[in-house]
Design goal:
The complex is a heterotrimer of chains A (387), B (176) and C (540).
Chain A (H helix, E strand, L loop, with lengths): L1 H24 L16 H34 L15 H29 L7 E8 L2 E8 L6 E4 L5 H4 L17 E4 L3 E8 L4 E5 L4 E5 L5 E6 L4 E6 L12 E7 L1 H18 L9 H15 L1 H4 L17 H4 L2 H10 L2 E2 L2 E2 L11 H12 L12 H9 L1
Parallel strand pairs in A: 1-5, 4-10
Antiparallel strand pairs in A: 1-2, 2-3, 5-8, 6-7, 9-10, 11-12
Chain B lengths: L2 H39 L22 E8 L5 E5 L3 E4 L4 E10 L5 E10 L7 E6 L5 E3 L4 E10 L9 E10 L5
Parallel strand pairs in B: 1-9
Antiparallel strand pairs in B: 1-3, 2-4, 4-8, 5-7, 5-9, 6-8
Chain C lengths: L31 H7 L3 H29 L10 H36 L7 H20 L24 H30 L12 H32 L13 H35 L6 H14 L15 H13 L1 H15 L8 H24 L1 H7 L3 H31 L5 H28 L13 H31 L14 H4 L18
Classes of the chains: A alpha+beta (387), B alpha+beta (176), C mainly alpha (540).
């Protein structure tokens, strides 16, 4: 009976192992990663070195101990006729194998301590940037140093079609954003993390920098990039359903390029105070609104506008969207409060400017099944801000 | 089981149950415990009380960069510091303003909570006057400048020369 | 479904216990379902725990299959991210509280009274209640999937303030956690009292089998740590519904406080899982080495040291929250210290095998597999304990690999070893040794296929708890998922082996394992009678 099953079990096991082997040797294998990401800062290099050191030590001990065990498995088998000895204690050896591991631990902890202390020293930064975790994107504010005043939101730019399998995946699938964090090479950057809603965590493996972003608190960490390039990573604390879709992209550039970028950004800030008296056509508003919607609204209200009731209500056919425009503008500006408690619909007034808000409201009122024909102008939004 | 053993068992049950209940209480006791431990270690950043400066001598040999940060998530307020950073001498009395604006069409009350970077810098910030001491109510559409007066205690460790003072405003529900 | 053969006073099977059964006093007078609902017999209750554990293992396993199915390829194919997070959370809660912990409580119930020469547990009726809370609690966890908003998608660690955003499924989960905790606490009180008060004359503490010692220590850990979890989730509950601000900065609280309270429970919890596993292995290895356990006293002290140290290391789960450097250093040093007593235990097990007379039946295979792979998991734990390295590895798949090595290759393998080891004693029947070996080798291969490659994923930077991933992680994820399917199917083989053994296994000899020497092997017949040691043996 066992033999009959043995054959099927063996076949199945072999098939699965073969599948694994096939995967390993296939094209996908080109992307095999074995170790920490290449270091882009001295701290990250120190961590690489520490990891190697500990790995070698642990492997040596592991091989030593299990060398003994496997030797025993071979040489002390009953089937080979080995008779059992009856010893069951030896104080000397017990003391030895208590003290020696303790010493080895000190040998490991000593160099580690230096790195721990270095990692926490955020003094004398050249540049301070505040990083805010939102559900589900990052906000960057340059607080002090060259570029201070620059402020933007960094949202994942991988299109939903790629995620849903309707389009081929790009090279930086899930690791690309619309606005990258730009920093100059060789400068000590102090990062202040905080969050708007739940705990997120900001991480750049290439710099060995990771810190939780806790709502209501700021925490500081630092890094100093020693290589130019684009370094990519992801949010690393579960923060809700789109936790896997809020990447972190840091672009390290030479100083001159950084200064140039700062200059361009400052110009954008001036320009992005979109002229609030400008009048736009319905089509212009809908087009802009669609982009704003895709970046800010789609994760909760969905591309279909159907939302995920009851938590995220539908916009298609919604009473609010089809009703008086002041009420809808107000809920987008100020957020929605129910029974004195804030809901998941946060205030977008602080995050988006009048033109963006006018555009997205126009878009919702003229998309899917909604056909109000309303075109909201930025001036109307501005007026409601003051109220 | 004989009655002696039954009695011993019952005694053990009682004792262990008390331990279990005590540990449940311990979990709740951790709340004030952490409060006290953090305060003692100087890393409690939520204490918003006025403190007279310990040392009023200004240390002109030293300059510390103080950065000002503001957050008002989920609130219909725009909240930002009037200055993003300034250089201060420890012991020097400093006043800075934060600008707050209420965009909602009704009054909103908020409470500001402070946080410091690095954490232990908090114990060296002696605030004499701060909008964070009390709840603040802004009328519909009101804009206001809110001051903070503080002294950075001269006993701030020598290796700290950049500190961030951050406030987060939270809406006080039910007061609007 | 009876795993206990009742000896109706047949003279030939009286055994050293000497107590004959009349027809009136078996199974408390009930038959069928009522027997199982009302039983106060430690063997019956042990059986209930073990079957409950297996059912949850299957349910949690299906969720793991769902997770690995989605992670087979990049992109979202099967489950939307919200549902994926729900599976991740419930997989963790069901496996930890529904599968692995009850498995070892099942062993405790079956084995402790017999190993110390006691007739039953100290509080037999409490024992029944402790079990029957569990199916109710586990159902709450499963039912939460069908509530509006679904099961909570917050990870088994239930961090605030994400938990405040969840729907009513979160409240069901909190209630379930309270019930599960209550069951564990009551069970532990029972175990401590039994071990301390009901040992047979001559069974001194330092003569007890190590399995009993590890359970004594574990039970203390449970009584101390479980109520703290209850506190933490109660605070989350009041933050959610009753206007408190324990974990909300707006009201003067701090989200990180939740983590401190949770991990104060959470770290002892992993030793609550590991220590009984150590105990089982400490019975199996000497039996199949035909040699006494090396360094019995050191094993007791090492286990106690591990238990005490487990209370001062919790923040090594929190190195990245922004702790001051002194805190990081303290917790790093304390955590690395645990390697010392754990190392002592590993060395002692190897020394037990050394110069023994070894045979490799299925229990021994799983015990050796445990020794090898648990230690590997221990080493990755050492790597993680070092702050600068943890900064790179925290919340990545390296951590997932680490804890699955110690909890699956550790605790689960040990549980398998225990079942194969004691099944003959419990049922009087042998399992099919060839199939048992198949179960071991397939489990071994597929387990490593799933989890060894996850170390690389973590090193390369793949975060935890994501339903989709960048392309560079594809290869290892595919291999891991293939391993998962193999592993899952293999556990169906285990079910088959057990059912076959119970129904039609070969009759077990009185002493199927030559080197086994605890009381159940030396003083009781095979299979053991429904009531054993009603008169305690004199061991003086």
């Amino acid at each position: 009976m066992a033999k009959k099953y043995s054959r099927s079990i063996a076949t199945l096991a072999l098939a699965l192992t073969a599948a694994a082997a096939a995967v390993l040797t296939s094209g996908a294998a080109m992307a095999i990663e074995w170790n920490l990401q290449p270091a882009g800062s001295k701290l990250a290099e120190d961590i690489h070195g520490l990891h190697e050191y500990v790995m070698i030590l642990c492997t040596a001990i592991f091989v030593g101990v299990f060398g003994f065990m496997f030797y025993s498995v071979y040489a002390h088998r009953k089937s080979k006729g080995h008779k059992a000895a009856q010893f069951h204690e030896n104080t000397t050896i017990e003391i030895l194998w208590t003290v020696i591991p303790a010493v080895i631990l000190v040998v490991i902890a000593w160099p580690t301590t230096k790195t721990v202390i270095a990692q926490k020293d955020t003094s004398n930064p050249d540049l301070t940037i505040k990083v805010t975790g939102y559900q589900w994107k990052w906000g960057y504010d340059y607080v002090k140093g060259e570029g201070e005043g620059i402020s933007f939101i960094s949202t994942m730019s991988t299109p939903r079609e790629q995620i849903e399998g309707k389009a081929p995946k790009g090279e930086h699938y899930l690791l690309e954003v619309d606005n990258e964090l730009v920093v100059p090479i060789g400068k000590k950057v102090r990062i202040l993390t905080t969050a708007a809603d739940v705990i997120h965590s900001w991480w750049v493996p290439a710099f060995g920098a990771k810190q939780d972003a806790v709502p209501g608190f700021i925490r500081d960490l630092w890094f100093k990039a020693e290589k130019t390039g684009t370094f990519r990573s992801q949010c690393v604390e579960l923060c809700g359903k789109e936790h896997g879709f809020m990447p972190i992209v840091v672009k390290v550039v030479p100083q001159e390029e950084y200064t140039k970028w700062v200059g361009e950004r400052m110009k954008l800030i001036a320009a992005a105070a979109d002229d609030p008296t400008k009048q736009y056509t319905l089509d212009e508003l809908k087009k802009r609104g669609e982009q704003v919607y895709a970046k800010n609204c789609v994760v909760c209200h969905q591309a279909t506008g159907k939302g995920t009731p009851p938590v995220f209500p539908p916009l298609d056919g919604s009473k609010v969207v089809l009703g008086p425009k002041e009420a809808q503008i107000a809920s987008v500006l100020n957020g929605v409060v129910k029974d004195g408690k804030p809901t998941a619909m946060v205030a977008f007034g602080p995050q988006l400017n009048d033109t963006e808000l006018a555009a997205v409201v126009t878009f919702t009122r003229n998309n899917w099944g909604n056909k109000t024909g309303d075109a909201i102008q930025p001036a109307e939004v501005k007026a409601l801000r003051k109220k | 089981m004989n009655p002696d053993q039954a009695r011993d068992n019952k005694r053990m049950l009682t004792r262990l149950s008390i331990v279990a209940v005590a540990m449940f209480g311990f979990g709740f006791a951790l709340v004030p415990f952490y409060d006290h431990i953090c305060r003692a270690l100087g890393i409690n950043s939520l204490v918003t009380r006025s403190e007279a400066p310990v040392n009023t001598q200004v240390d002109l040999t030293r300059k510390v960069t103080v950065e000002f940060d503001a957050n008002a998530h989920g609130m219909p307020w725009s909240f930002k510091p009037a200055t993003r950073h300034m250089e201060v001498h420890p012991g020097q009395l400093v006043q800075v303003d934060y600008e707050v604006a209420n965009v909602r069409s009704s009054a909103v009350t908020g409470q500001a909570v402070a946080s410091y970077g690095p954490k232990l810098a908090g114990q060296y910030f002696r605030k004499l006057d701060c909008f964070c001491f009390t709840q603040q109510t802004l009328a519909a559409g009101e804009t206001r400048r809110m001051p903070v007066s503080f002294v950075l205690d001269a006993s701030l460790p020598a290796d700290i020369n950049t500190v961030t003072l951050s406030y987060t405003f939270f809406e006080v529900a039910g007061k609007s | 479904m009876s795993a206990v053969v009742d000896n109706h006073g047949h003279a030939g099977e009286r055994g050293k216990d000497g107590h004959a059964h009349g027809h009136g006093d078996h199974h408390g007078g009930y038959g069928g379902v009522m027997r199982w609902i009302t039983t106060t017999n430690h063997k019956d209750i042990g059986t209930l725990y073990l079957w409950f554990s297996f059912i949850n293992f299957m349910v949690g396993g299906v969720m793991a299959m769902a997770i690995r199915l989605e992670l087979f390829s990049p992109g979202i194919q099967f489950f939307n991210p919200d549902l994926f997070n729900q599976f991740t959370t419930m997989h963790g809660l069901i496996m930890v509280f529904g599968a692995i912990m009850p498995a070892f409580v099942g062993f405790a119930n079956w084995q402790i009274p017999m190993m110390i020469g006691a007739p039953d547990m100290a509080f037999a009726r409490l024992n029944n209640w402790s079990f029957w809370i569990l199916p109710f609690a586990a159902s709450l966890l499963v039912i939460s999937f069908f509530t509006p908003g679904g099961a909570p998608g917050v990870g088994w660690t239930l961090y605030a303030p994400l938990t405040v955003q969840m729907g009513v499924g979160m409240d069901l989960t909190i209630f379930a956690v309270h019930l599960l905790g209550m069951s564990s606490i009551l069970g532990s009180i029972n175990i401590i009292t039994t071990i301390l008060n009901m040992r047979a004359p001559g069974m001194t503490l330092m003569r007890m089998p190590l399995f009993v010692w590890t359970w004594l220590i574990t039970a203390y850990l449970l009584v101390a740590a479980m109520p703290v979890l209850a506190g933490a989730v109660t605070m989350s509950l009041t933050d959610r519904h009753f206007g408190t601000s324990f974990f909300n900065a707006a009201g003067g609280g701090d989200p990180v406080l939740y983590q401190h309270i949770f991990w104060f429970f959470g770290h002892p919890e992993v030793y609550i899982i590991a220590l009984p596993a150590f105990g089982v292995v400490s019975q199996v290895i000497p039996a199949f080495s035909r040699k006494p356990l090396f360094g019995y006293a050191s094993m007791v002290y090492a286990t106690s040291a591990i238990a005490i140290l487990s209370f001062i290391v919790w923040a090594h789960h929190m190195y990245t929250v922004g702790m001051p450097v002194t805190g990081q250093l303290f917790f790093m040093y304390a955590t690395t210290l645990i390697a010392v007593p754990t190392g002592v235990k590993v060395f002692n097990w190897v020394a037990t095998m050394w110069k023994g007379s070894l045979s490799f039946e299925t229990p021994m295979l799983f015990a050796i597999g445990f020794l090898f792979l648990f230690t590997l998991g221990g080493f990755t734990g050492l790597v993680l304990s070092l702050v600068p390295i943890d900064i790179q590895l925290h919340d990545t798949y390296y951590v997932v690999a680490h804890f699955h090595y110690v909890m699956v290759a550790g605790a689960l393998f040990s549980a398998f070893a225990g079942v194969y080891f004691w099944l003959p004693k419990w049922t009087g029947r042998m399992y099919d040794e060839t199939l048992g070996k198949w179960h071991f080798w397939l489990t071994m291969i597929f387990f490593n296929m799933i989890f060894f490659v996850q170390h690389f994923l973590g090193l390369a930077g793949m975060p935890r708890r994501i339903p989709d991933y960048p392309l560079m992680f594809e290869t290892w994820n595919k291999i891991s998922s293939i391993g998962a399917f193999g592993f899952g199917l293999t556990q169906l083989l285990f079910l088959y082996i057990i059912l076959k053994a119970i129904k039609s296994g070969e009759k077990a000899p009185e002493k199927p394992w030559e080197g086994a020497d605890s009381l159940e092997w030396t003083h009781l017949p095979t299979p053991v009678p429904y009531h054993s040691f009603e008169t305690p043996p004199n061991l003086k």
